[in-house]
Amino acid sequence: MNHSIPIIIIITAGIFIFSCNKDIADTPKTSDHTAIAKHFNNRSDYRLYIGVPLDNPIKWVKANYIPTNQVKIGNQLIKAETIKAYLITYPNGEILDFNSETIPLPEETSGLVIHYNKKEKILTLKDLVKGNKIINVVYGPSTQVDSEKLYYSTSIKNISDKKIRIINFSPYIKKGLKYGAEITYTKEQFMTWYGQSSEWIQPGQTVTDHSNYGGPPCLWAYTIETDDGTTAIGGKVFTGRYH
Questions:
Q1: The model's pTM
Q2: pLDDT for 23-56, tens place per residue?
Q3: Which domains does the chain have, with CATH numbers?
Q4: Cα dist. 4→51, 67, 118 in Å?
């Protein structure tokens, strides 16, 4: 099943290109009950909503996932395979996955919040050398069902001896020998999507977004700040292969 996640635009500038951006295009997403387990096996802090009544869903209610492939609504335990409609969001309310476009969204949820750059940001791979001595980016399989590998996990490991934080990050599209980005995501979005419990990433620590999106070739670049005030940009091109 194809789904379109709503988009909230913060700053408008120029024409947006959909080939390299998180959770926006009409792409295949998990459409059966196994989706819930796949997401919650990676993170327990996602928010879960189930469409009720189960046989003909017309509204969302909050639920809790139980690792035995059940969900709990109030005091009622429900087998996941009986669920026809589900909605999963990040802790900040931004939508991660869903399989029904007919049920109105809960007030506390939102579509993907996009911050457009007033001017396109340009990078070359040489610009990443300094930052890639601080972080290591690794791409792997996603919790989303996606035969075209448009969805994938993205892990950021702090390989330095200092605490670091990500100030912002962007998906860049290849333009000749350079890469351009028309949007920027915030520090708060990074912390939410990558499951950070605190602002700083400790030396040796890895944080992961289990459901990143972007058609290859897509360069994800991160603005890094160390605890001594050093800043740099690090990142890696997703080529369609896990590495």
A1: 0.84
A2: 443 333 445 668 888 889 888 999 999 999 999 9
A3: 2-113 (no CATH), 115-238 (2.60.40.10)
A4: 18, 28, 25
